[in-house]
Amino acid sequence: MNTPNELPPKTCSIERLVTMESDIKKVLEGTKTATRRNGRYADVGEIMTLEGQQFKIDNVYEQSLGELTDEDANREGFDTVDEYKESILSYHPGMPWLPHMKVWVHEFSKVNE
């Protein structure tokens, strides 16, 4: 079992954290400050670069889909959990939305130079 400050190894690289054009646009506009993935893509403190702008990973933690709130959806760039859910399921046809399914939350903020 991992202690709260001890995370399992990354399953992918930070370069793959935010890749969809619509999501990149939301990050650059400041309306998306978190992304959820089925694996861990970044460490706290790591820097993600999108179109020349840098964003620091502030927090990484696990969450079940059933725990999502509208506030979480707002950080993803959506108004409600239902809007976020519709979007995710449209990216992954045939994927079930299972409330007990765990995802990795990556929260980030713009690095001001």
Entry keywords:
globular; single chain; 4 strands; 113 residues; four-stranded antiparallel sheet; alpha+beta
Provide an overview of this structure.
This protein is an alpha+beta fold and 113 residues long. Helix content is 23%, strand content 26%. It is built from three helices and four strands; from the N terminus they run H-E-E-E-H-H-E. The radius of gyration is 14 Å and the shape is globular.
Describe the SSE topology:
Layout: H1 21-29, E1 34-37, E2 47-50, E3 53-64, H2 70-75, H3 81-91, E4 102-110
Antiparallel strand pairs: 1-4, 2-3, 3-4
How large is the radius of gyration? Answer: 14 Å
Shape, per Cα inertia axes: globular
How many β-strand runs?
Answer: 4
Largest sheet: 4 strands, antiparallel
Gap between N and C termini: 38 Å
Q: What helical percentage do the residues reach?
A: 10-25%
Mean pLDDT: 93
Order of helices and strands: HEEEHHE
Number of helices: 3
The computed structural class is: alpha+beta
What share of residues are in beta strands? 25-35%
Which regions are unreliable across 5 or more consecutive residues at pLDDT < 50? none
Give me the side-by-side strand order of the main sheet: 1-4-3-2
Summarize the structure.
This protein has helices at residues 21-29, 70-75, 81-91, and strands at 34-37, 47-50, 53-64, 102-110.
